[in-house]
Amino acid sequence: MPVGIEEIAFYTPKFSLDMVDLANARGEEPDKYTIGIGQTTQSVVPNYEDVVTMGVNAAKNFIEQIDRKSIEMLLFATESGVDNSKSGAIFAKNFLGLKDGIRAIELKQACYAGTLALMQAKDFVRIHPDKKVLVIASDVARYGLNTPGEVTQGAGAVAMLISADPKVAVINDDTVYMVKDEPDFWRPLDSDIALVDGHQSTDVYKEMFLALWGRYKQENTLSLDDIAAWGFHMPYTKMAKKALDQILPEVSNDQQEALREHLAEAQFYNRHVGNLYTGSLYLSLLSLLDRSDSLSAGDRIGLFSFGSGAEAELFSLTLSAGFQEQVAKNRIQSMLDQRQKLSMAEYEAVFLSQHFDSKNEEKTDAPEHTRLCQFIGWQDRYRKYRIAK
Ligand code: CAA
Fold first, then answer.
1. Is the CB of residue 198 below 6 angstroms from any atom belonging to ligand 1?
2. Which superkingdom is the protein from (predicted)?
3. Which of 237, 289, 304, 309 is nearest to 42 (CA)?
4. Which end of the chain, N or C, is surrounded by fewer C-beta atoms within 10 Å?
5. Which residue's CA is minimally distant from atom 19 of ligand 1?
């Protein structure tokens, strides 16, 4: 029985920063950021958004159009959760109006956990074909002002409904995965910024992609000619190119050209949003499906998921008839165009305005009169949210 993605939706906060402005402020060549690293703009998170609000705001794009009672489980993947004990899934379950009789849990392994959620959801639906699973992958990529990682920040969430009615794509039974203990990226419990050795991380990413691709081909008796296009986890868009370049010589020049063109489509939105950790691969998938006009139903899309530390998974989807309409509903380009561009001074002020201290009872800058879910501040050291029902 085919199981896969029925709905997929994306949300990112309404502020953005131009990477040319960032480069100029940090004394770097703009081309290093826009070409060498491959980032054009990044989403900037106001102090009234967090992984819960972004995840809820993504899922709200389709939740009202589906039968909520069919959702039996909510899997919430994040590296940047809001509490050391309580799961973001419980907040999200409430704000999305889901029934009490579900399972809801948060999953963590750097940028990889969204893929574990997807695979658990697929297995669950296979056994319970009348049930659906809501997967939310939501993160804030925060490296700090004046750090090498600053150009690779970003934020956003992808929500996916996994069911036996895969209107977007079927998740194939071809996955391969692996774990390697690596000190390339981590975030101590007392730190709100990630610590990273970016060059080591890139090497681990490339190595794991190559190792998994070798296993994938062997275990599934497939070759690169069977993959119409790729989506990648993209901390920065150049990283995906570095991975794909390793295997392109396996196919003809024409096929290499086609895969490169599709990679540019799969990089496009990530280039304008930045890293969103767990959601990054799925934004790349959305970008590919939304921007390509040459993919069609039945095409096999390869996906490479990676989380530093490190864990990776390589699998494929087969596109369903009508996937374009499902994806286009998101109107992602228009969402990105409507973001408000910040000056460097505004960006730094927003960056420093986050309410990480639970003893700070000041209200956040959450605007009134919005249907979006917002974090309004701490009260008795508990997070308070507002959402129009
Ligand atoms: N014009 C064009 N290109 C230029 C240039 C110019 N003027 N100047 C430099 N470049 C190129 C360089 O040649 C280089 O290209 P290659 O990589 O192809 O050689 C590129 O720009 C970057 O230059 P550097 O390596 O010198 O840059 P850097 O030392 O500042 O590091 C970085 C760049 C590694 C991406 C750094 O920004 C970083 O550490 N970022 C965060 C790291 C990251 O995201 N790691 C992945 C983690 S995985 C993840 O997402 C985390 C998770 O699991 C939760």
1. yes
2. Bacteria
3. 237
4. C
5. 36
